[in-house]
């Protein structure tokens, strides 16, 4: 197959491209330039879009002996990821920009260009396992497609990939899905002579260079004075914008006095319409059900009682590195909605988060994804 390998400049994508070459594919490397700040360097960038990253990607491609290109996807990234991030916070939701980036740039935009140029599939350094589709040498074939957790659960990225959908995933290759650990991947890069073997991982939100998300939101959305209130509406303090708070947050609330019982308060809810942030005791954070829309099905629902469809005794994960919670899940494919009845309480669930359903014989297969309402 003709394979377009996304080279971020890190060790994972370099080894993934190398493995794609080993598999006999005709591989071309491409680095996606996502930042509009061409002066961004690693000393001022905690993400994956620095000038050094592009140079490291080119160096890796030279060692692998594959053609290499840099594609400017900064406009797509700004429109599909950064603008969405700000819009979601403005609406009082808590988005995951990595989920959006995987869906709208690293797959949609990259695959769109790749297919137009005659490529059969894209290969990335994500940690997840795929069967069927391009992974079985049948790009575009949906019949046996399945996305599952990576062999290394600590690095598993199936959560952020679920939103990509069956069509996109059928054209994807994840050569690191069976890697036993990140240490093993680094050792393989060292053995291959790749210069990025010891390069540190990127972290935090790549377009928030200093890691100060609240500051980024205030600079982008402006300061908006509002009130911190109790669940019954009592004014407890003030803030500079509801979008700077996340459900479950305890620190940095700026409260003027403690709770009567002396217990800490947490953010329970944000109210964009009134610019209020509701704070209260920890027990108000626990939810026993998850409602979500924008349903993405990666497996066929099973018949349940009362003519409903979904899955019994599966699990739901709402954070990239969070614990999956046992649940029964009902889906409405026509309405594009999902409801998970949790077998145990889930803490600090926020609108805008991605809910991913896992099941199958081993509990590792991704069944569906939707966005929490």
Automatic annotation (TrEMBL):
Region feature Interaction with tRNA, mapped onto this chain: 155-157
Active site per UniProt: 101 (nucleophile), 206 (cysteine persulfide intermediate)
Cell compartment(s), UniProt: Cytoplasm
This enzyme's EC code(s): 2.8.1.13
Organism ancestry: Bacteria, Bacillati, Actinomycetota, Actinomycetes, Actinomycetales
Organism, scientific name: Actinomyces respiraculi
tRNA-specific 2-thiouridylase MnmA-like central domain span: 215-280
Residues marked Interaction with tRNA (site): 126, 353
Family matches, as SUPFAM superfamilies: Adenine nucleotide alpha hydrolases-like
Family label: Belongs to the MnmA/TRMU family.
Reactions accelerated catalytically: S-sulfanyl-L-cysteinyl-[protein] + uridine(34) in tRNA + AH2 + ATP = 2-thiouridine(34) in tRNA + L-cysteinyl-[protein] + A + AMP + diphosphate + H(+)
Pfam families cross-referenced by the UniProt entry: tRNA_Me_trans (PF03054), tRNA_Me_trans_C (PF20258), tRNA_Me_trans_M (PF20259)
Family matches, as HAMAP family: tRNA_thiouridyl_MnmA
Name assigned to this protein: tRNA-specific 2-thiouridylase MnmA
Keywords: ATP-binding, Cytoplasm, Disulfide bond, Nucleotide-binding, RNA-binding, Transferase, tRNA processing, tRNA-binding
GO molecular function: ATP binding; tRNA binding; tRNA-uridine 2-sulfurtransferase activity
Keyword ATP-binding appears in the UniProt entry: yes
């Amino acid at each position: 197959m003709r394979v377009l390998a996304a080279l971020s400049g890190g060790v994972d994508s370099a080894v993934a491209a190398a493995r794609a070459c080993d598999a006999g594919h005709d591989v071309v490397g491409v680095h996606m330039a996502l930042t509009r700040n061409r002066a961004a360097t690693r000393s001022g960038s905690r993400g994956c879009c620095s000038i050094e990253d592009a140079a490291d990607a080119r160096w890796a491609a030279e060692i692998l002996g594959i053609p290499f290109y840099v594609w400017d996807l900064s406009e797509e990234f700004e429109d599909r990821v950064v603008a969405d991030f700000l819009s979601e916070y403005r609406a009082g939701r808590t988005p995951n920009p990595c989920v959006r980036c995987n869906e709208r740039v690293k797959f949609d935009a990259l695959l769109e260009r790749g297919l137009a140029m005659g490529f059969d599939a894209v290969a990335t350094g994500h940690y997840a396992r795929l069967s069927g589709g391009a992974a079985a040498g049948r790009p575009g074939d949906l019949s046996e497609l399945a996305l599952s957790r990576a062999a290394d659960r600590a690095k598993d990225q199936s959560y952020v990939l679920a939103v990509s959908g069956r069509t996109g995933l059928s054209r994807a290759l994840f050569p690191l899905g069976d890697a036993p650990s990140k240490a093993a991947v680094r050792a393989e890069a060292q053995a291959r002579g790749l210069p990025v073997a010891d390069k540190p991982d990127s972290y935090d939100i790549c377009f928030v260079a200093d890691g100060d998300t609240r500051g980024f939101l205030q600079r982008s959305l402006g300061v908006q004075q509002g009130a911190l209130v109790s669940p019954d509406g009592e004014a407890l303090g003030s803030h500079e914008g509801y979008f700077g708070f996340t459900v479950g947050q305890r620190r940095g609330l700026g409260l003027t006095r403690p709770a009567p019982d002396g217990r800490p308060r947490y953010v329970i809810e944000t109210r964009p319409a009134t610019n209020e942030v509701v704070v209260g005791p920890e027990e108000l954070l626990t939810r026993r059900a998850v409602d979500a829309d924008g349903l993405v099905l990666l497996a066929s629902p099973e018949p349940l009682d009362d003519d409903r469809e979904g899955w019994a005794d599966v699990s739901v994960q709402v954070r990239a590195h969070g614990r999956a919670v046992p649940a029964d899940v009902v889906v409405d494919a026509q309405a594009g909605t999902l409801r998970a009845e949790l077998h145990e309480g889930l803490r600090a669930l926020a609108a805008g988060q991605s809910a991913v359903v896992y099941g199958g014989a081993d509990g590792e297969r991704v069944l569906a994804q939707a966005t929490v309402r």
